[in-house]
Write a structure and sequence with these properties.
384 residues; alpha/beta; Aspartate Aminotransferase, domain 2; Aspartate Aminotransferase, domain 1; 2 domains; seven-stranded mixed beta sheet; three-stranded antiparallel beta sheet; 13 helices; 17 strands; globular; binds pyridoxal-5'-phosphate
Amino acid sequence: MMPYSRQQVADEDISAVVDVLKSDFLTQGPMVSEFERGVAQYCGVEHAVATCNATAALHLACLALGVAQGDVVWVAATSFVASANCALYCGADIDFVDIDSRTGLISVAALAEKLASYQQQGKSLPKVLIVVHIAGQSCDMQALAALCGPLDIAIIEDASHALGGTYQQQTIGCCQYSACSVFSFHPVKPITSGEGGMLVSQNGQLVEKARLLASHGIVKDAEHCLADKPGEWYYEQQQLGFNYRLSDIHAALGVSQLKRLDTFISRKQALVQQYNAAFQHSAIQPLLVQEDCSSAWHLYIVQFTDISTRNRCFDALRAAGFGVNLHYLPIPGHPYYQNLGFSPDDYPNASHYAEASLSLPLFPDLDAVDVAKVVAICLQCDSS
Ligand SMILES: *Cc1c(COP(=O)(O)O)cnc(C)c1O
């Protein structure tokens, strides 16, 4: 089965990893900081901390922003569950904001309406809003920040899909309109380190808080120890942290992959153009591309006129060996979240999106012949 997305591992990636295996440090060596510097530089952001995956980075982002029991966090209704779980890990209460069903991105209008109604009813406003750059396209960060800034609501960008995308001519991850951004380096994402994630921010204090919590809450250097460090052997735990570190083996793969990120994206752009041209005169519509955005093209998502056509197409593509998928069901529709009292019916756009959408194969090594096969199956299902 051909997957909807997959990594490209080149000889240079393999030798970068082998070099680490032959070196003194498999973890906590020089590659992790090199990866952090590389991603930060690419994004035009000051500070970065690498983590063992993006889920850990999202958890650290919430903790570093002080999210705790009694706080409320709002999350875009359409995403991978990790975007919401991170707030629950902190003991916070969560709620969801509906999306725009033609982009998959959080709806600015729905957010404005929800904020206004909470203010009217005197309900407590969220401390943090988590937005998700679905498929690699940025949310309208300027508009979101204009709503959240005056109310002291911090924004976390779940940019797991979006390394290499731009918004208003700036690279996603520059954090102009947010407290921080999070990237994933899972093999389906824009670049991979095997498992891996990163938290980036213009706020050095926020990143240092996250770095401390990513490594057990332990401090070693004299400057930051609370006690007078009596000897080199001394270290102290200051907070209840975790082991969320990335290894040098993973980081070396990430550093090597980052060099090809732009090539990956332009290759995927060419495939997207092929798909778009082929669907142009059909009822099958790709997600809307927003002005002032260039996508990192993590996913190529199309929308069908109804759920039965989508399902027919899903079955036909799977039967032909194409591992297409839905990204995503509304988070509030998962049984775990329904047990917390949420219902997908409260998020009609997210529900509609989940009925219409399908992610078709898109990755750098996909070839035009396979794109043409996928298109032919889609067009046939759409007209039958
Ligand atoms: C992949 C993904 C995550 C989780 O990333 P991991 O690195 O696998 O933990 C979180 N949010 C979104 C939107 C994702 O796509």
